[in-house]
Amino acid sequence: MEQHHPSIRQEAVALLDRGMANRAVAERLNVPRGTVSWWRHEARREQGGQGEARRSRLCPVCDERPLDRASYAYLLGLYLGDGYISHYAKHRSPSLLVTMDDAWPGLQDAAEAAFRAVFPDNAICRQRRKGCQNIKVYFKHLTCLFPQTGPGRKHERKIELNGWQQKIVDEHPWEFLRGLIQLFTNTLDTVGVEWRRANAKNISVAKRASVALMDAHIGPKY
Above 80 in pLDDT, residue 173? Predict the structure, then answer.
């Protein structure tokens, strides 16, 4: 996260306390919305928001906290395709990070919205990088939600969904496909999209009816 002068944060918190929305504060002060969201979270914590802090520790798997299943299906696809979970000793919790190209700002917003739906009580931040943005969250139970995490690169190891994950994907296959770039041919089969392997690394969807299905449910990049 970019470093900002303390006076900027103080002004942001004051505006938030007056009821201004995160987006409006970010635009007014020319800082990322994720940074404003983090400042809001930290201000509430510093003011004694223990109830919110407790909720942010609850896990949909371990504690049966309600889970936005459609958003989770989309985020699961993003994680398997363009995301990873990091464990750094200096941080108390692991982090989930998804990298989104600046060429598609609409998809960046869609990804951030999914993060916020799945982690409603956690701070979501954006990290600006050359040509892209990293969307990130820290959460102690990430490995419960994404048990596919492990050593090495995802595409070099076998990936299987747990039973509860497969149920969510079966309920929301199109959301899963929207987020997923690789490992998605089985789900294509379930929604009737015909595909073929173009080569060792690429999948082709070329038949008119299948392309129309993809356009109708996934839509263009934007």
Answer: yes
d(CA 117, CA 68): 6
What end-to-end distance do the CA atoms of the chain give, in Å?
25
Residue 181, helix vs strand vs coil: coil
Between CA 171 and CA 37 the distance in angstroms is 31
**Whole-angstrom Cα distance, residue 163 to residue 140?**
22
- The top-level CATH class assigned to 1-48 is mainly alpha
DSSP E strands: which ranges in the chain?
A: 83-86, 95-101, 124-129, 132-138, 196-197, 203-204
Considering the four listed CATH numbers 3.40.50.360, 3.40.50.300, 3.40.50.10140, 3.10.28.10, the one that applies to the domain covering 59-217 is 3.10.28.10
Q: Would you call 7 helix, strand, or coil by DSSP?
A: helix
How far is the CA of 32 from the CAs of 12, 141, 200, in angstroms? 12, 26, 39
Question: Do 100 and 107 meet the contact criterion of CB atoms below 8 Å apart?
Answer: yes
How far is 59 from 121, CA to CA, in rounded Å? Answer: 11
pLDDT at 183: 59
Look at the pTM and tell me if it is higher than 0.90: no
**What are the sequence ranges of the domains in the chain?**
1-48, 59-217
